Amino acid sequence: MDRTAQLTSRASAHPIAYDPPPVPRSLHVRAVRVLEDNWTGASTVPSRSLYPHQWSWDSAFIAIGLRHLSPLRAQTELETLLAAQWADGRIPHIVFNPSVPLDAYFPSPDFWRSSTAGRAAGAPRTVQTSGIVQPPVHALAAWLVHCADPGLSRARGFLARVYPSLAAWHRYLLHRRDLGGAGLASVVHPWEQGMDNSPCWDAPLSRVVPAPARSFRRADLDHGAAEDRPTDLDYGRYVRLATDYRDGGYADGTAQFAVEDPAFNALLIASEHALARIAGELGATGTARHARAQRLTTALVDRLWDPASGMFLCRDIRDGNGTLIPERSVSGLVPLLLPDLPRDIATALVRTVRGPHFGLGATTRLPPSYDLLGEAFDPHRYWRGPAWFNTSWLIERGLRIHGEQEHADALREAFLDTADSSGFAEYVDPYTGEPCGAPGFGWTAALTLDLLHARPGDGVTSAGTGTFDMSEKGGNRG
């Protein structure tokens, strides 16, 4: 039996349909193979070697791709994650698989001690998790998964079951994490923002005394080159922040590190729009949520837009002055995803992503994670320059929302070519496409499938409509 036949046979067990619309068949099959290999039976790991558990925003992106293959499995991906939600509303960034040895990943469950240290915050007792969070892509993912097969979704009561969890998640971020008092959510650890090693964190982290090197063992270096990973000094600071947060019972108000990040908040706004759509599907009104999303967009512009840089910047809440951090990262381009941005700001973002600092379409094929002209730029080191596929997907979507179809088409083509040639790498050199990090990465494969199956222009509207149209016309095309 050849490989395609084997995949088709295996599909009946999971169930994944292998009958895509006319797309590059070999790329489709290879992307499916990655998701099959990373499937655990209830969720998808980002990487069997480097990341052997369930990660929060990874699962959201993976569900977005899985919806084209098996809407049921995409729903299961999100339901598994939400089953580990804490009573205070937070969705933990890792849900640990108890069958994985403790030394396979650090920080492991015995470091986080969620069921004991997180008791006051309502951590679940039956599953071990981390105590920090990741960007809130989940409501957006849930809405897109529903739209892939509305009949199945309604028959299973999918949205009715996930809506309360998603609403609680947003309440947590909008209330417990409004540490700057201006309406935006703050992250209390670099790992929460998802772009772990960004130079944006260098100044806030410089105030953190690192944990002693002897107090932890870096399992990541068993699977990745040291020159591609965070330095030992940075990792020691990550561990110190996580230790202090844990020992404080995962309370948010006293966090030593607190940053308002543009991508984190843009994804919260996009998910607020999606949650309004979900409310409407369930027979309620989404007007209040759309209005909240628009207020958050205004706050995002007021707090984080920097006209001189032509992009959004991070704000350090704990530096004594609450100042903007003068570093250009891809995070500051992600708000292009939002339909209610003032037109001049959207135009400036497009100019910036195509200009000398990011070089998209000129010197780079995918947007780098950090300023090409910045002193800290490194084309291979984790989030300090390499291009990532999830941020490229978000920017591709943003370009379409704001009517930049030609640029979006070029980015889509570059994304698919690079995902294919890199073996669905975790991230790549932005100039050459050389693969870095883990091969066979979950969200790379999933978002490849999304771009293969989604017709350009579906599910988005031009700017200025006051809505966020993610209606995915035509239902499931897988």
Automatic annotation (TrEMBL):
Q: Which domain of life is it from?
A: Bacteria
Tell me which family the UniProt entry assigns to this protein: Belongs to the glycosyl hydrolase 63 family.
Please provide the record's keywords in A-Z order: Glycosidase, Hydrolase
Organism of origin: Streptomyces cylindrosporus
Q: Which residues form the signal peptide?
A: none
Q: Which InterPro entries match?
A: 6-hairpin_glycosidase_sf (IPR008928), 6hp_glycosidase-like_sf (IPR012341), Glycoside_hydrolase_63 (IPR004888), MGH1-like_GH (IPR054491)
Boundaries of each Mannosylglycerate hydrolase MGH1-like glycoside hydrolase domain copy? Answer: 51-444
Regions annotated as coiled coil: none
**What protein name does the entry list?**
Mannosylglycerate hydrolase MGH1-like glycoside hydrolase domain-containing protein
